[in-house]
Structures are given as C-alpha cells and as structure tokens.
Amino acid sequence: MVEKGGFFLKLYARSTEFIYSKNQVLSMVSAVIFDCDNTLMDYMRMKRVTCEHAIEAMMDVGLEMEKRAALDLLYNLYKKDGLDDHTIFQRFLRRVEGKIDHKKLAHAIVAYRRARIGVLHSYPGTKRTLIALKERGLKLGVVSDASNLKLWTRLTAMSLDDFFEVVVGFDDTQTMKPARQPFYLAVSELGVAPEECVMIGDMPQRDILGAKRLGMTTCFAAYGYEGSRRNSRADFVLNSISEVPRIVDALRN
Ligand SMILES: [Mg+2]
Q: How far is the CA of 166 from the centre of ligand 1 (A)?
C-alpha cells in the first residue's frame, strides 16, 4: 500500500480489491496518460502471431528447422537486440544458414507484415474505457518509447488515434522512460500539472518509476506484463484496462 495522504479508503471492486490512500491532490485528477505497447495494445500477442507466420513462410520455401526451435532462436535474438529490431530475419538466416537467402527473407517479411495487420488489436474494453474517460471530461495522452511513426501506425490500426489530445513518441524528446522529458512534454501539452495525472503502464522500471518521480498517480497494467507482478511500486494494480474509470472516480470523490 502506498501512503499519499491523511486517511485511507478501502474500495472493494467486483473483481479486484484496491487498497489505497487519498488526499486533496488526488481529487484533482484531470488527465490520464497511457503507455502503448502492452498497455493499450497486446504487443506480445502480435509478436507471437507474426513470428509464427514468418517462420512458417520460411519453412514453406525450404528452411530446414523445427518450428519450435526456430521460434526460440528468433525470440533469443529479439531478447538480445530488442523487439523492434528491423533486421531480425536477416540475423536469423545468417545464424541458421550462414548467409541471407533473399527468397526466404522476402517470404518472412511478407508473411510478417500480412499477419501484423490482422493482429494489431487493443485489449478488450479499451475503446469503452477511453470513451468512459472522455465522458468524465478527462484529457487523454500517450507516452511511448516507440518511434513516432510506429506509435501513430499502431494507434491508427487500432482506431484509437482520435482519443488522445497528446501523443508523445521517442522522436519528440529523443529520450526513453523513465526520463522526465517525455512525461513533462505530455503534461505541458495537456496543460495540466503532473499531480493531476494518472499514468498507466506495464513496465515498472519505465512507466511507473518515471511517472512517480513527477508525482503522478500510477497504475500498473498487470494484464500486459509478462514478468512477476510483484513490486511494481504502483499505486494501483490493474487486471484489466476496464478498471481505469472506476479508479479515477474513486480518486475524484
Ligand atoms: Mg509497454
């Protein structure tokens, strides 16, 4: 439990139990800022499905490797250089075959791109949640470490782009969370104080830590996080994005 004020309030929701404290500052919630990958968008599911399609496509044109082993190798390469690595299939082929077979590479890329369009989805309840927040008069923002083009492409593919007053991507400040700059840019463009913001994200060391440093209220998107759920250090833990309006209501009352 995080202590923020003088008295404590226990709120029992239907699916989750929240225990939190409340003070005057928290009653001034006027904006909600979301991370994108694994918070609005089920990024890991997208990666899993697209990689499977790419491996199968390479197998169709002669890749001699077990699908499971190929996926494991691909994930290991991603782990090393990040999930947004553009040259992942080149590096994969070089590792497996010692050279780049451009036919296999082309099949992998085409299959990956085709599959991606179909699986760029937001988590269930995302749109309803954003509408509910808008109806409460809240300003909405996104702060992501993804490049601006990727971020806007993802938001557009999910038809979420019109919900946000401000969208901050890597290009805007050239810094990644938990640096203060992207958070500051978002709050200054929203015209609110950090203390009036609720930040929602799946990365404790980036989203939660960064937002807490500025005095924001924090929600840990446990539904999007693949690691241990413990010690997120957030004020709230979310099992679903649909829980956000209820938390905001409780903070404002
Ligand atoms: Mg994330």
A: 17
